[in-house]
């Protein structure tokens, strides 16, 4: 890609990507064009949110991060080091297992790291009157580590294709034993709607991806809800807001402001994949209501207008019932990105001190009231400095079931 000699470090990077896909069933790198994909590979860090949402243990996440470092010199130096790390993880898990005196069961967190299908009901082993003595660990075998690596590669390939095949999506009858998730949550900080687990079409090219179930706020966070947070934390309401408009979206908030509110409310900010699935449904539609443009269904294209109430435009609701996901205000999502040269130049004229590529930049999505109508707002995004705030930038929250 850069004209340099190909080394074993390329294979280490590929192994890290494969391990990410094995654990999440999702691609770590996506793009609308080949140039965009190359830019992501060379410049943007991996979004680790899917790994954490899948319950993957920190040592495995760390291995993925190390293997996919942009600088080859910072990756494990060949597969002998990768194997050593895998062996260490296995030894730690074995030690944890030997230390437990409880009857043998599968830890749900561990189950997610080995990609146990959600449709499978994991049953505990029958209780025993007396636990059998634990045998001493067998001597290390030199073929064990390569076998683990090869096994992971084979398993990763099989699960990779299985997760992308519509034929393996369980029918409703097959998941009847899965825990029942309420469709709505009524919380003081705002109502939330469930977005069911499963495949959906993501991005401009409508690539098939899969997510576990999650909740999304029905509306953007309101001034009234944010005022409760400010009162509890002893902080002022951002200047561009007024308690006289408590049912309007809170605006003029930075990324950290939004994240702190979410933490206070027992929620979190959505990932970019979650936000898009909540806005477009599973079929990759261009607008929350379908594929036909209809300015009357969203607060967009009003250069001299303003934000409206968070519960407005009910006829423009997303498939799951979320409101104003197109227009009204831009919404922060939890995706760290490297800014383009154009973005750096633009914000250098706005912010003091001028932002740098080394400081955190995050994504906003959905467009706002003064943006012209477009069929790109549900799959496209803008990258801005985390410290930036404006009267047309707000947010909504997500939550794990």
Fold and architecture overview:
It is a single chain. The chain is of the alpha+beta class. The chain folds into two domains: 1-116 and 143-168, Transferase(Phosphotransferase), domain 1; 184-399, paralog of FGE (formylglycine-generating enzyme). The chain is 32% helix and 10% strand. It has helices at residues 8-24, 34-43, 49-53, 58-67, 79-99, 108-113, 144-164, 223-233, 255-264, 272-280, 341-348, and strands spanning 184-185, 192-195, 198-202, 207-211, 214-217, 330-336, 361-365, 382-385, 393-394, 398-399. It has a four-stranded antiparallel beta sheet with strand order 1-2-5-10. It has a four-stranded mixed beta sheet with strand order 8-7-6-9, with no helix packed on it. A two-stranded antiparallel sheet has the order 3-4. Helix 1 (8-24) crosses helix 7 (144-164), helix 4 runs antiparallel to helix 5 and helix 5 (79-99) packs across helix 7. The longest helix is centred in the first third of the chain and has 21 residues, at 79-99. Residues 100-150 and 153-176 have low confidence and may be disordered.
How is the topology of this model organized?
Layout: H1 8-24, H2 34-43, H3 49-53, H4 58-67, H5 79-99, H6 108-113, H7 144-164, E1 184-185, E2 192-195, E3 198-202, E4 207-211, E5 214-217, H8 223-233, H9 255-264, H10 272-280, E6 330-336, H11 341-348, E7 361-365, E8 382-385, E9 393-394, E10 398-399
Helix pairs in contact: 1-4, 1-7, 4-5, 5-7
